[in-house]
Amino acid sequence: MEKEPKRLLYGATPLVFLLLITLLYTQLFASTSLPFNRWMQRLTNWKVTDSTLSEAIKCQESFKPSLRKLLKGEDQSKLEANGFACDLDFYSMVCVASEPFLRIDTTRMTVEMLLNQTCPQDKPVRIKPYARQDSSVILKDTTPVEIMQQNISSLAACEYNHTVPAVIFSSSGFRGNMFHEFNEVIIPLYITSRHFESNVQLILSDYNPLFVSRYAQILSHLSGYQVMNPATNGSIHCFPGGAVVGLKFHDFLSINISSSINPGGYSMLDFKKFLQDSYNLKETQVSTKKPKLLLISRVKSRAFLNEEEMVNMMEELGFDIVIARPKQMSNLTEFSQLVSSCSVMVGAHGAGLTNELFLPVGAVVVQVVPLGLEWASAVYFGEPAGAMGVHYLEYRIQPEESSLIDTYGRSDEVIADPESVFAKSFEAGRAVYITGQNLKINVSRFRETLVQARLLVGNDS
Ligand SMILES: *[C@@H]1O[C@H](CO)[C@@H](O)[C@H](O)[C@H]1NC(C)=O
Ligand SMILES: *[C@@H]1O[C@H](CO)[C@@H](O)[C@H](O)[C@H]1NC(C)=O
Ligand SMILES: *[C@@H]1O[C@H](CO)[C@@H](O)[C@H](O)[C@H]1NC(C)=O
Ligand SMILES: *[C@@H]1O[C@H](CO)[C@@H](O)[C@H](O)[C@H]1NC(C)=O
Ligand SMILES: *[C@@H]1O[C@H](CO)[C@@H](O)[C@H](O)[C@H]1NC(C)=O
Ligand SMILES: *[C@@H]1O[C@H](CO)[C@@H](O)[C@H](O)[C@H]1NC(C)=O
Ligand SMILES: *[C@@H]1O[C@H](CO)[C@@H](O)[C@H](O)[C@H]1NC(C)=O
């Protein structure tokens, strides 16, 4: 253990020291009990005024309860003792730091805390703040953030003083894919930051302007401050309120209300309500008028080759059809309005189905499941639907409805045993089933699924 000889320099005798602390306590903190002396002991060779320190401690203390909620029991005790703790699970890593002297150097992407001489950190903690910790391939372009202890004399002066905590995250995993953006960034960001009630500074490392403009409404409802771009704001930012690095992930497109880490205690329906508020969506319940059916039309892969025939069948069933092409879907402000006015959404497995988040309560999502994609279909879009208040129906195609049968023939292992193809490598499976497959739907068979959908949304017209 290292000694702390400087502590004794503070007062000539322990008695004077005690008197001074008592005075400071009674004068500055009559009504509160802040750990002022604990910090004063560590600041003997550093110029800091009493009022600055008391402000910083007040800020730290006021946000600590919210930060604690991002950790489990024993890690909460660690945070209490050391001002720092992390939670790690299969997909996400979230580190929390709380200290009046905390600063973030946005040039180096470091979170700096005071050196603890009793227990110096042996090396910085390094995090890539993206909720796919399971895959180093996905994280390869994610800039790491380091959390380190600094000698008090090496702590740089604050260029900006912030009065709220920071949440540092990255959006670098799968750019431009709506499913991955909601799954790995937006929903985890909601879980991690919503309970600060906008009193939080978001710092987007690997800043992507397209991401920020695409999700502007959501980001501005999560934080009262503009999202910070470290690349254009390389400074020493002081955050006496603390910092969070990384986002908490629960499950695919899901919030688990009974998870041990759910700081706001939110459910998926709360998230849906949040989206409705953010995008100003008026229609929150499924309409009782002639049901509108949204058909997600894909072009590059998993495209419906007989879309017109499908549309005719749907019209016969009494649906009002809206066809959404990829271009139309890119502006969420506009597209979320359209989705929220629909009773049924139909699409082949793919990112477009993420729009189920914007469907009104009571609506139906119909997923057309291509060959080989049963698992991803169920896990990414099927299982999460119920908690969003929407019904889920699945239409699994038969080999005859896949374009793969023309390419490979009926008896090929591609048709008979997709698992064996994925077993060779994910890339091999991907090339065949995800990017290499189109769909020619057997309309008379598919009709049965849509009759069910029609029944679920009511038969009033
Ligand atoms: C320093 O580390 C020790 C051991 O973990 C801990 O008990 C103590 O509270 C820490 N001090 C501060 C000021 O964080
Ligand atoms: C802290 O900084 C001082 C001055 O730069 C240096 O002499 C000392 O060794 C440092 N202590 C540690 C533990 O890094
Ligand atoms: C930030 O606060 C520190 C005290 O902690 C003060 O010395 C400094 O001048 C402040 N900086 C700015 C830019 O307000
Ligand atoms: C950098 O961040 C500070 C604090 O949030 C802000 O006031 C300033 O405008 C930012 N500068 C740039 C260039 O974005
Ligand atoms: C939600 O979290 C709890 C507690 O960790 C766990 O027992 C439960 O299985 C989870 N529920 C779902 C649907 O994953
Ligand atoms: C999306 O559309 C809205 C309304 O038409 C428009 O104001 C906004 O600028 C568009 N957003 C983007 C990112 O293009
Ligand atoms: C379409 O599906 C029906 C069963 O619903 C079946 O009888 C028919 O043979 C199928 N048509 C083709 C072309 O496969």
UniProtKB/TrEMBL annotation:
It comes from the Eukaryota. The keyword Glycoprotein applies. It holds the Pfam family Glyco_transf_61. Keywords: Glycoprotein, Glycosyltransferase, Transferase. Its main location: Golgi. It is found in: Golgi apparatus membrane. Residues 273-366 form the Glycosyltransferase 61 catalytic domain. It is a single-pass type II membrane protein. One of its GO terms (molecular function) is pentosyltransferase activity. GO terms for cellular component: Golgi membrane. This is Glycosyltransferase 61 catalytic domain-containing protein.
